[in-house]
Amino acid sequence: MSGDRDVTPHAPATGVRDDADARPTPSFRRLVAAAGTVLAEAGVPSPEHDARALAAHALGVTRYEPALAPEPADEVRVAFAALVERRRRREPLQHIVGSAPFRHLVLHVEPGVFVPRPETETVAQVAVDEAAAVTRAGDVPLVVDLCCGAGGIAASVASEVPGSRVVAVDVDHAAVSLTRRNVEARGVTVHRGDATAADVLCELDGTVHVVVSNPPYIPPDAVPTEPEVREHDPDRALYGGGPDGLEVPGGVVRTASRLLRPGGLLVMEHAEVQAEAVRRLVAGTGAFVDVATRQDLTGRDRMVVARRASTDVRAGVGDSRP
Length: 322
Hints:
Mean pLDDT: 89
Keywords: Methyltransferase, S-adenosyl-L-methionine, Transferase
Distance between the termini: 50 Å
CATH class of the largest domain: Alpha Beta
Number of domains: 2
Strand order of the largest sheet: 5-4-3-6-7-9-8
EC number: 2.1.1.297
Largest sheet: 7 strands, mixed
GO molecular function: nucleic acid binding; peptide chain release factor N(5)-glutamine methyltransferase activity
Catalytic activity: L-glutaminyl-[peptide chain release factor] + S-adenosyl-L-methionine = N(5)-methyl-L-glutaminyl-[peptide chain release factor] + S-adenosyl-L-homocysteine + H(+)
Function: Methylates the class 1 translation termination release factors RF1/PrfA and RF2/PrfB on the glutamine residue of the universally conserved GGQ motif.
CATH topology of the largest domain: Rossmann fold
Order of helices and strands: HHHHEEHEHEHEEHHHEHEE
Helix content: 25-40%
C-alpha cells in the first residue's frame, strides 16, 4: 500500500521483544483511522465513510461501531487490509462489499452493471408517489421501469406501493439477472429487451400509469473523471448515443408515449446540463403535456416529468419547472 500510513496487521504482541523493531499490534480502531487517511490520499471522495464500511464488511456486521467492536482476529485484519487496498485503487466500494443502499433497500451490486446512485432515489420517489396516487384512486398501478439496471426503481415501487404491478426492462443480460435478484419475492416482472424498440412490451400499449427511467445519457465527449465510473461502470449504461447523449433517452420517450395511458406519467433522469434539451425532446413528440424539469435533493435539474396527452399535441417547451 502506498503512503506512510500502515494499515497492514502485525503479529500479535507476545510481551517479549525479540528485536528493536518489534511493534505491538495496533488497535483495529487505529487501523480503520489509518485506512481513512490512506483513502483520502488516494483521492477517494468519502474516505472515512468508506474505511468504516470496509471495516464492517471485514467484520461481517452491518455497521462498524468503534466503541462497540471487539478486537478482531488476525485474519480479519488481513482481510481488511486487502479491502482497503482495492478501494485505494479506486475499485467502487459497492463492488467490494457487493451491495448498495437505495432508498429503504439494500441492493445487490455486481461488476458489469451500473451502480445505483443516490440522485436516482428522487426519480424513484416521483414514481412511488404517482403509483400511490393511483392506488388511492382505487386502481391498480401499472409501472414500467425502462433501462432498469440493478432494479432499484422497480424494487422501490414494488416494496413501497403494495399491490402495484411493476415491469422492469433492460437490454443487458447481467442487468436483467441482477434485477431479478433484487426484486425477488416482490412480484416484479423482469423482461430482457431494448427499451427503445418499437415493439418492446407492445402488449401493454396504452395501459401504463407510470413509465420511469434512468437511461444512459452521457454525451460521448463528457467522459467521467471519477475512476470508479470511468473504469468500472459499463459504457452502454453510461453513454446515451448521438452527439448530445440523447439518442437512447429519445427512444425511451417514444416508448413511453406508446405505453402510457392518457394522463399517465413519464419521469426520466438526465444530466443537469440537458434539462432544456430534454424538455424540448419530450414536448417535440407531440404526445405529452405539462412537461417540466424537477430537481434532485441537491437542487440540481436532474429529471423531466410529463403527462401523456389524450391526443397528440405540440406542448410548450418553456422552462416549466414548478
